[in-house]
Amino acid sequence: MAVDVVKVALGERSYEVRIGPGLIARAGAEIAPLLSRPKVAIVTEDRVAGLHLEALMAGLAAEGIAAEALVLPPGEATKSWAHLQEVVEWLLAQKVERKDIVVAFGGGVIGDLAGFAAAILRRGVRFVQIPTSLLAQVDSSVGGKTGINSPHGKNLVGAFHQPSLVLADIDVLGTLTPRDFLAGYGEVVKYGGLGSLDFFEWLERNGPALAAGDAGLRQEAVRRSVQMKADIVARDETEQGDRALLNLGHTFGHALEAATGYSDRLLHGEGVAIGCALAFETSARLGLMAQEAPSRFRAHLAAMGMKRDLADIAGALPDAEGLIALMGQDKKVQAGKLRFILARGIGEAFVADDVDLDVVRSVLLDGLAGR
Ligand code: GLY
User: Under 8 Å CB-to-CB from 115, ≥6 apart: which residues?
Assistant: First the structure.
């Protein structure tokens, strides 16, 4: 299978997202043109290291590139001040210089953390993303959002720092658990929901085969998702406008993640998928779209075997007021008003700043009553 290339067009900070099989094994050849000397520092985590670090090291060594790796614990807790300090001090101990490259090798946690460390190390060094989860391939590795969590909330400390290259190796998706794969698929289906009915219909036709392992379909889903993200980021790198569309489902989703303690009860992509369904439901109740649209969206999630309702979240949840309060903690609050991404149909999302909270409350009350 050929490698697809999506360009993120940001002037002198433009870069390519290369998508295809075998990219980790070829990482040396892919990265070598960026290097000022044959040496990189890799930041990764335990699970990814166990599965793929040897292959990456071999791929780099094949081009004579020396590499050292820092292996961190897996999980969201790693996106912390303490681990940021560990990464930065380790990179300094490795004598990483301004012209060197840091490699972020892992899922969204590692990409965000290593990217932020690269952003602040010596006032900014370049980095390459090698995302190993579906979620990271289609979302977090592209677009330059980097950062860590604070005790005040997720992603509250960070910087925009674009990678110099993204290598999305489709083969690694085969090592994900079905649950992790489908959680990443929550972000894939989000792209259909926010900007392309055509892509959503493609997912309706191909989603099950793609989840079952069809590599060609997986590559196409990643390519189309990344293309949509690249187009939005090129228009609005720092989220002054359109980029907020990428947060479809996230206001609800973040509240649900907070309500479940950022635990295994609800993975981020699962929260996004349920959040998209709730955003469509809210849009329908506001008269923006026909009721068929949220039903169709949820039917696709059901066909994929994904969580789609509040009823699918195990264990206790706060009441509707409690969930609305958690939405208020979301960093996308502007001047005290909750920002939602709503839609006029599947693929037609827009930013809404003055949503009637009574409608949101009624959607949540009904969802909670169904539990
Ligand atoms: N994940 C949303 C964004 O990159 O803007």
Answer: 104, 127, 129, 144, 146, 161, 163
